[in-house]
Amino acid sequence: MPFPLTVCQRHPRYALFLVLLLVGSFLLFSPSDTFSTSRYQHVRHTALDHTLPARIAHSEDMYGRTLDRRQAMIRKFGPNPGQVVMFPPDREPWPAYTVWDFFPPVFNCPHEVERIGALGDGGKWICGLSRIAEKPDCVVYSFGLDWDSTFEGELLQRTSHCKVYGYDFTARGFGHGVPRVLKGRTQFARLGLGAEDSHGPADEPKMWTLRSLMAANGHDHIDVLHIDIEGWEFEVLRAMVVDFAGLGSVAAAVPGVGGVAGEAVPERGALPFGQLLIEFHVWHQKFEEFLAFWEMLEGAGLRPFMSEVNLVYANYNRQSGVELAQYSFLNIRGDNVFISDKSLDPSASSDATALEAEAEGVAPGEPDMRTIRHAAAVGVLDRRRR
């Protein structure tokens, strides 16, 4: 025991070397953010700020990290998107993934999340049903009806004013599940959702774009949009994003695609709905194509908060992959009821904002730092995509 002490006393440089060795080892094996104050400050601010913009900003920050992990997964199994297989065969080498693993529903809905409708094929996951429970101008569109309309039926039962507009060019109306007493708040037409309008007298089936149909109904918003159109969703949503974003091309709507370096990026519009509940049918899709499509949806402000593969289809088609999956998206752009309190009651929201600002020490008319943080988070996510 006295030997090391004696050596250090006789040779101080050994003592200095020992101290440096211990400090270096501590820094080497400690987490990279051990001395980072910003990490803890961010967590503390998030924990204290429970406002709706703060919750959305926090979810957006977490979603941004998922984009980095997606790119890492592509490099691992690709190494580029063109080499990634949608559903790898069960043989060596055996990469344990499916296409859905690249697109997890990690965005946290800032409200309650629940599955409404029948169990099994027919029910849907929705975010914040309470937000539209008493909304006077609640509007729901449902494209692609089935014999099971329990989703639409329960939504009608649990809301006071929602009107459900159902469309399908093969069905005769809503399936079972919609109570007769509530059918006065429904409307059905035999038509389909298309990428372009073709509903003249000689057209059959008659196809409508979402913009044209909303204009015909006199609607400027849709609270919940449900789409199940058997594989046509890809061309329909591409056209929809371009139509409502007003950019003129899909390439302009996809972050990092198209455009010239240094050229100003035009302002993107908001899709006219608060939530999108959709079943994807990836028959004959290549991963590179589906990735570009998904990034287009992200660029338009859609964030997945829940998913569910169609196990009924997988059971009946065991020789193919799990090619059908239901996703629920929240639209974080625009001014819909799920991301803004102003949509509930504009006048009440203004009063509440003034009172909240006064309580938080923010004078009316001054910029709210919580909103600035939310805008900054959205900007960070866009930069990551580019």
Could you please describe the fold and organization of this structure?
The protein is α/β, with parallel strands linked by helices and 386 residues long. It has 2 domains: 2-30, no CATH class; 48-347, no CATH class. 38% of the residues lie in helices and 15% in strands. It is built from 12 helices and 11 strands. A 7-stranded mixed β-sheet has the order 5-4-3-8-9-11-10. Strands 1-2 form a two-stranded antiparallel ribbon. Strands 6-7 form a two-stranded parallel sheet. Helix 1 (2-10) crosses helix 2 (12-29) and helix 4 (52-77) packs parallel to helix 12 (369-385). The termini are far apart. The model is unreliable at 32-47, 248-267 and 348-386 (pLDDT under 50). It comes from Daedalea quercina L-15889. Residues 346-370 are annotated as: Disordered. This is Methyltransferase domain-containing protein.
Outline of the structure:
This protein is an alpha/beta fold and 386 residues long.
Spatial sequence of strands, sheet with the most strands: 5-4-3-8-9-11-10
- Whole-number radius of gyration? 26 Å
pLDDT < 50 runs, ≥5 residues: 32-47, 248-267, 348-386
What best-fitting shape do the alpha-carbon axes yield? globular
Number of strands: 11
The overall pLDDT average reads 79
Distance between the ends = 60 Å
Overall tally of domains = 2
**Which sheet architecture does the biggest sheet show?**
7 strands, mixed
Question: How much strand?
Answer: 5-15%
Order of helices and strands: HHHHEEEHEEEEHEHHEHEHEHH
> Tally the helices: what do you get?
12
Portion in helices: 25-40%
Structural class by SSE content? alpha/beta
Biased composition (Low complexity): 354-366
Domain Methyltransferase: 101-239
Organism: Daedalea quercina L-15889
Region (Disordered): 346-370
